[in-house]
Amino acid sequence: MTERGLQEVVTPVAVTDGAGVRLRRSIATETLDHLDPFFLFDHFGSEDPGDYLAGFPMHPHRGIETVTYMLDGTVAHRDSLGNAGVIGTGDVQWMTAGSGILHEEMPKAGPRRLDGFQIWVNLPAKLKMTRPRYQDVPAARIPEVSRPDGARIRVVAGEVDGVAGAVKEIFAGPTYLDVALPAGGSLEQPVPRGHTALLYVYRGAVTVGGADRSRGAAAVPSPRLAVLADGDVARVHAAGGPARFLLLSAQPLREPYARYGPFVMNTREEIAQALHELREGTFIRRG
Ligand code: CO
Predict the structure, then answer these.
(1) C-alpha 40 to ligand 1 mean position (Å)
(2) 166 CA distance to ligand 1 middle (Å)
(3) Strand partners, 145
(4) Lower CB density within 10 Å: C or N end of the chain?
(5) How buried is 277 (Cβ within 10 angstroms: 0-12 exposed, 13-18 middle, 19+ buried)?
């Protein structure tokens, strides 16, 4: 068993997207284009509604799955499949854009902060044009594993201690864990060799790898995205005080890709085709 070390620590970039939403982006930047199969990692979080109320008005996606996980606040959404609703604290929304979807994501001003994450998981070439689908998973359906040492792990996707996550049908089969460690606590989680693995530390600070810790390894503070080196197991330790982080992993697709805005396809021709269909009004497949 080889422990996964720390390969790279990425500082999120402040960006403005949608109609003027200020957020922190760690994947899909000049520093880090993608971590196969993850093609975007956004952390939206603010106490100022001015940072998010403009929202993300109707826009297309093709070729990816988007997963939105809310820590706090509410986002209203509707899409070209006819879905409409509101996701709130602890809820997950996952959307398979497949052949094409139009949707709107509008954060609401709340009594507390807005906080959460959106990631894009790439679709394999043979499923790029699969039928779009959409699902909300309410917070109550997301299992939480509590370990004797005080670690609490919300299993959004994947498996922890034999407990399967709530979201099972993302084609790339990612693991998506939201981990809360008490001061001095640790998480040990098997991650198959060859899989991409990353941490996103959003509260407190962590160190990675038991051996590193004894050598006094530098802590990864929040907010940072830490790319893990290859190995069989991730070991994460809360450094100094309680810590919260996401652990994401998945098997890379290792396919050619072409990205343009909200589309991730395999070739430039497929991107041009998507733009052409948007202009022609044939982007959304009927029936
Ligand atoms: Co979108």
Answers:
(1) 11
(2) 21
(3) 153
(4) C
(5) middle
C-alpha 68 – ligand 1 centre gap (Å): 10
**Residue 141, SS3?**
helix
CA–centroid distance, residue 73 to ligand 1 (Å): 18
Q: What is the rounded radius of gyration, in angstroms, for the C-alpha atoms of the chain?
A: 19
Per-residue pLDDT tens over the stretch 129-138: 999 999 899 9
User: Considering only CA atoms, which of 219, 174, 211, 182 is closest in space to residue 35?
Assistant: 174
CA of 217 to the centre of ligand 1 (A): 38
Q: What would the two tokens of residue 59 be? A: 């826009």
Distance in Å, CA 266 to ligand 1 centroid: 19
Confidence of residue 112 (pLDDT cuts 50, 70, 90): confident
Q: Would the pLDDT of 287 be above 70?
A: no
Distance 213 CA to ligand 1 centre (A): 39
Q: Domains in the chain, ordered, with CATH?
A: 6-280 (2.60.120.10)
Q: What is the C-alpha to C-alpha distance for residues 212 and 51, in angstroms, rounded to an integer?
A: 38
